[in-house]
């Protein structure tokens, strides 16, 4: 079980990794401002799962509107925040894209996985970024992920390539007591070869080298292959959230 301090640290670490152009703090909330397909970089998030005054969602919506941005919220599916859910629904927002926040141990990952062979760099490389722009992926979304993760000041970049070019990529962020896994991606032509496991192992090795054992990631519930992989290496669900947006 995570306490409110753990949750707040995890959410701060998340925004450090996806590096929105601006972040504003309101009591108990973080408001990232960006123009991006990355939901975590564009959605207000509470820093605890305790009961809150639902009126704050109106203030938050106004903050986004003032910047010319569409308000969105990323709220955990927990009973204490049910009044937030109800107020958002009353305002016309609808929940979508159920996502799990999962936590694990870097040491346990290394007990399960073979040693990683990915190349790790402190700066983004073409071998890393070209995976997100590979055939079969949304080029706009891929470009946004490259831009956001490249702006971050707290991540390392992991990549694998073969004779045909970039094959798999991912990043790990380090801060607020957490190592975070972000941007896991395998080129479509390389699926089923265990490359994601190699990326994870290399990032876990780096986490241990930096003194981090607690690891988190966020995974869309529709990504069944990713969920199965993360379960095999010891991740467990800490909570589930939805993005709350006004239907277009």
Feature tags:
single chain, 248 residues, alpha+beta, Aminopeptidase, 2 domains, eight-stranded mixed sheet, three-stranded antiparallel sheet, globular
Care to give the gist of this entry?
With 248 residues, this protein is of the alpha+beta class. It has helices at residues 4-18, 56-66, 82-90, 106-112, 126-132, 139-151, 195-209, 224-232, and strands at residues 22-26, 29-33, 45-46, 73-76, 94-105, 119-121, 155-162, 165-175, 178-186, 214-220, 236-245.
How do the strands and helices of this protein lay out in sequence?
Blueprint: H1 4-18, E1 22-26, E2 29-33, E3 45-46, H2 56-66, E4 73-76, H3 82-90, E5 94-105, H4 106-112, E6 119-121, H5 126-132, H6 139-151, E7 155-162, E8 165-175, E9 178-186, H7 195-209, E10 214-220, H8 224-232, E11 236-245
Helix pairs in contact: 4-7
């Amino acid at each position: 079980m995570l306490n409110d301090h753990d949750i707040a640290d995890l959410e701060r670490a998340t925004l450090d990794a996806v590096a929105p152009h601006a972040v504003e703090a309101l009591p108990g909330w973080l408001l990232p401002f960006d123009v991006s397909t990355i939901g975590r970089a564009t959605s207000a998030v509470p820093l605890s799962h305790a009961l809150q005054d639902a009126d704050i969602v109106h203030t938050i919506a106004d903050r986004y509107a003032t910047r010319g941005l569409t308000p969105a919220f990323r709220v955990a599916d927990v009973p204490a925040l049910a009044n937030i859910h109800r107020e958002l629904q009353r305002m016309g927002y609808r929940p979508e894209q159920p996502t799990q926040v999962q936590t694990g141990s870097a040491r346990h990952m290394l007990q399960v996985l073979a040693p990683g062979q990915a190349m790790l760099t402190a700066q983004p490389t073409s071998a890393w970024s070209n995976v997100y722009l590979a055939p079969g992926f949304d080029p706009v979304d891929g470009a946004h992920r490259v831009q956001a993760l490249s702006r971050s000041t707290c991540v390392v970049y992991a990549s694998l390539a073969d004779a045909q070019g970039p094959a798999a990529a991912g990043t790990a962020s380090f801060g607020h007591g957490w190592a975070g896994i972000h941007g896991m991606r395998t080129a479509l032509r390389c699926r089923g070869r265990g490359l994601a496991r190699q990326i994870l192992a290399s990032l876990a090795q780096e986490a241990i080298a930096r003194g981090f054992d607690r690891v988190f990631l966020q995974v869309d519930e529709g990504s069944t292959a990713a969920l199965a992989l993360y379960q095999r290496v010891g991740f467990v669900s800490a909570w589930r959230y939805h993005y709350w947006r006004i239907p277009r």
